[in-house]
UniProtKB/TrEMBL annotation:
It is found in: Membrane. InterPro entries: AA/rel_permease1, Amino_acid_permease_CS, NAD(P)-bd_dom_sf, Sc_DH/Rdtase_CS, SDR_fam. It comes from the Eukaryota. The keyword NADP applies. GO terms for biological process: amino acid transport. It is a multi-pass membrane protein. Pfam families: AA_permease_2, adh_short. The chain crosses the membrane at residues 57-83, 89-109, 147-171, 177-200, 212-231, 251-270, 291-312, 332-365, 395-415, 421-443, 471-497, 503-524. This is Putative choline transport protein. Residues 1-10 have a biased composition (Basic and acidic residues). Keywords: Membrane, NADP, Transmembrane, Transmembrane helix, Transport.
């Protein structure tokens, strides 16, 4: 890309919005590596891409580990389980619940790989039950999941505030903690975290990477300190850590105490969906989301298990821990280090990871609420679904989550067991949302294989990169659901006996009230609610010869996102078969397969090398293209979109080499003409319905050109000889085709797509001294599609037009 070759004073470039792709070597593929992944996955949600893709695989793994933060969550909430068996109870309960959550995580990873969406379980619960029950399942799953994360944010703010108060109390022995003190810290910490999420969106990957360093470094430091420092006073016995059961709940059944105590572990490990809510902010989410879930669950378990063993071996007086006036972990650290300074250091070591987790929790909660709002499933959707134009994030939705969390904090002032209520509500609501997506997945035969609908109206889902075979899959899914069903009930029991109004378990009240609110809003808005539409209709089995009003389009090339957006747009039309090309057989096309497909639509992907000529047209070239298409069930083509291009030289006439001229003519002129020659029989073919007397579909050849191919609009200071004359020759081909195909009725049009807001478009704008390109990708393709739709022998056939329909001089 040689931007310096474009004269900044050229009025033709400014007035006619040149195609930015002409200043970058265009790939001869519709699905080609990163450029494909960056754009194609988004429409799995059925929504236009609005948020920026800031996250890499490393940073998304960081988000999972930081938001999950298993060891810090387990330590910070240890008061929830320490009464349920003492140290052995905490350890064994954590192991047991982790096994169940590994199964839940595998179930969610499979769904995330099949249907990547920032809506997460809300989206999956809308799809897995099928069209009949998908709306109501998705509705409740979305509400449960969103408010679970708000409760999760409340718990993290509470833990962080308790740490701050505990540090203050260490240096003020006469200090008597009051719940309103913790509430003040809760509010301050909540809104600091919210502001970071609101106003530092582009820095979030870096913040999460820093958080990952805090988490891994923090657990390492804590393990080392707690393992070494008690050597002077002695460690706890093996029996104390592994065998001495201590039931301080008031329940007589130790078995029930064990099961109820698993709540602490469920809170610590039970966030496997968190990374799924960033599916629209990461490349290739079909693969990267399952990988991130796996990293989160495995590393989280290992660090938390080692951390818990270490702190219990450092604990010598369990009664003092149980009697601690606030934050029992403080007493454990004090016993481990024997000094206030050492305890303070360890509390700071856990505070920073917890604060980073709080940031990650608000990232997730805000995006959950945003995805609900964009489907108009919550009140004030018009305000909540807005993506801030400058910060590029769901700012309003994140603010709303902060407000809800603040309101929950008021409960802390009025109840001594409010923290447990937040923990219980988080676990109950989150697992209910998981149940709403996994249970229908089982009943519909996994990937909706048991659907009785067939043909263009089937609702089968497409498996993703991560897929379990049916034996393993059914086992994992069923056990996951049984765990959720049983333990949702157990986690709602009072934490201890006897209980009163102040010590009651309010998880069931919070979860029940939210469910009632969701039900009421369903009665108000459910009649007009459509829910996420993407994924309801996956790979279609439509036969091109039997389908009616079927548009078979083959795209050749990639115009920096324009070709991909064309594919995406076409697939949103019902009864449409789109043939897309990729450069080599090894090119990854998994993301392309995840594009949203309307009813009766399907995508055919073929390899198409640019080799042409009698000696070169062999396998995977135009030479065997017709045969390969027929093997895919494509016997006719109605619209041929030629979107290939090369632009590697913008030298002047005297400086342009013969090789550069030949290379540009090969890709921009000769190859499109050769493709037309090979596919002409399919263009002229008729479907059975057309032969039966129904209206014949008008066949079209669309050549994606550029204003730089206009001779009449050329400025002599614009050095574009190789690219310009190859596009001008392509325009000649379009005009010539118009006259040659008069008898057949084939329409031929050259279309200039405009200057689009892509990365390359912005780079070109910078070279011209222009703030930004004038067009969005959606606007460009919408215009191009408009010209394709209206194209006919009577309107613009044989013309060179812009995306707006303006005739451009030859």
């Amino acid at each position: 890309m040689e931007q310096t070759m474009i004269d900044k004073r050229s009025p033709s470039l400014r007035n006619f919005s040149p195609n930015p792709s002409t200043y970058k070597s265009e790939k001869v593929a519709i699905a080609d590596g990163e450029s494909h992944s960056q754009l194609a996955e988004v429409n799995e949600t059925g929504h236009v891409q609005e948020v920026e893709r800031n996250f890499s695989l490393l940073s998304i793994c960081s988000v999972g580990l930081v938001t999950g933060n298993t060891w810090a969550a387990l330590g910070g909430s240890i008061a929830t389980a320490i009464y349920n068996g003492g140290p052995p109870g905490v350890l064994y309960e954590f192991i047991a619940v982790s096994i169940f959550y590994w199964l839940v995580a595998a179930s969610l990873a499979e769904l995330a790989s099949s249907m990547p969406s920032s809506a997460g379980v809300y989206h999956w619960a809308s799809i897995t039950p099928g069209p009949k029950y998908g709306k109501i399942c998705g509705w409740f799953a979305g509400w449960w999941n969103t408010f679970a994360w708000i409760c999760g944010a409340a718990t993290m703010s509470s833990i962080a505030s308790n740490v701050v108060v505990a540090i203050y109390g260490l240096y003020h022995p006469d200090y008597v903690v009051a719940r309103w003190h913790i509430f003040i810290g809760y509010i301050i910490i909540t809104w600091i975290a919210c502001c970071i999420v609101l106003f530092a969106n582009r820095a979030l990957p870096m913040i999460n990477n820093i958080g990952l360093a805090f988490i891994l470094g923090g657990v390492f430091i804590t393990i080392i300190v707690c393992a070494i420092m008690p050597s002077g006073t002695g460690h706890a016995t093996h029996s104390f850590v592994w065998a001495d059961w201590a039931n301080d709940t008031g329940y007589s059944s130790n078995g029930f105490v064990f099961l109820a105590g698993m709540l602490n572990g469920a809170y610590a490990v039970g966030t496997p969906d968190c990374v799924s809510h960033l599916a629209e902010e990461i490349p290739n989410p079909r693969k990267n989301i399952p990988l991130a879930i796996g990293a989160q669950m495995s590393i989280g378990f290992i660090t938390a298990f080692l951390y818990t063993i270490t702190i219990f071996y450092a604990t010598t007086d369990l009664d003092a821990v149980l009697a601690a006036p606030f934050f029992p972990l403080t007493q454990i650290y004090l016993q481990a280090t024997g000094t206030i300074a050492g305890t303070t250091g360890l509390l700071f070591v856990i505070f920073f990871p917890i604060f980073c987790t709080l940031i990650g929790t608000y990232i997730t909660a805000g995006r959950c609420l945003w995805t609900l709002a964009r489907d108009e499933a919550v009140p004030f959707s018009n305000w909540l679904h807005v993506i801030h134009p400058h910060h590029k994030n769901p700012l309003n939705a994140t603010i709303a989550c902060g407000i809800c969390s603040t309101i929950l904090g008021v409960i802390y002032v009025g109840s001594s067991t409010a923290f447990n209520a937040f923990v219980g509500s988080f676990v109950v609501l989150l697992t209910l949302s998981y149940l709403a997506s996994i249970l229908p997945f089982i009943f519909t035969g996994r990937f909706n294989r048991s659907s009785q609908e067939s043909g263009p109206y089937n609702n089968r889902m497409i498996p993703g990169w991560f897929q379990m075979n049916d034996i393993v899959g059914y086992t994992v899914n069923i056990v996951s659901c049984l765990y959720i069903i049983v333990f949702v009930v157990i986690y709602c029991f009072p934490y201890a006996m006897p209980f009163n109004a102040a010590s009651m378990n309010y998880s069931c009240l919070i979860a029940g009230a939210l469910s009632i609110a969701a039900g009421i809003w369903w009665l108000v808005k459910g009649g007009n609610y459509k829910g996420p539409q993407a994924g309801l209709y996956g790979q279609s089995e439509v036969d091109s010869d039997d389908g009616r009003n079927v548009l078979n389009g083959i795209h050749v090339g990639d115009s920096d996102g324009i070709g991909l957006q064309l594919t995406r747009t076409l697939l949103q039309r019902e009864n449409t078969i789109v043939i897309a090309t990729k450069r080599t057989t090894s090119t990854d096309s998994s993301g392309l397969e995840g594009l949203f497909k309307a009813r009766g639509s399907r995508l055919v992907i073929v390899t198409l090398s640019s080799d042409i000529g009698d000696e070169k047209e062999r396998k995977n070239t135009v030479g065997d293209l017709v045969e390969r298409l027929k093997n895919e069930g494509v016997g006719k083509i109605d619209t041929l979109i030629l979107n290939a291009g090369a632009a590697t030289s913008f030298e002047s006439v005297k400086e342009t080499s013969v090789q550069e001229l030949q290379a540009h003519f090969h890709i921009n002129t000769v190859w499109p003409i050769r493709i037309y020659q090979v596919l002409r029989p399919l263009l002229l073919a008729s479907s059975a319905s057309e032969e039966g007397g129904e209206k014949r579909i008008q066949k079209k050849v669309i050549y994606v050109s550029s204003y730089l191919g206009s001779i009449g609009g050329m400025e002599d200071e614009t050095p574009s000889i190789a690219y310009g004359i190859s596009k001008a020759a392509g325009n000649y081909f379009v005009r010539k085709l118009h006259f040659e195909e008069e008898g057949s009725g084939v329409v031929s049009v050259a279309v200039h797509p405009g200057w689009v807001k892509t990365d390359n478009g912005q780079a070109f704008a910078d070279s011209l001294g222009v703030k930004e390109p004038p067009m969005s990708l959606e606007e460009s393709v919408s215009g191009v599609m408009g010209q394709i739709d209206v194209a006919s022998r009577e309107t613009n056939s044989g013309s060179f037009v812009s995306w707006k329909g303006d005739v451009i001089p030859w």
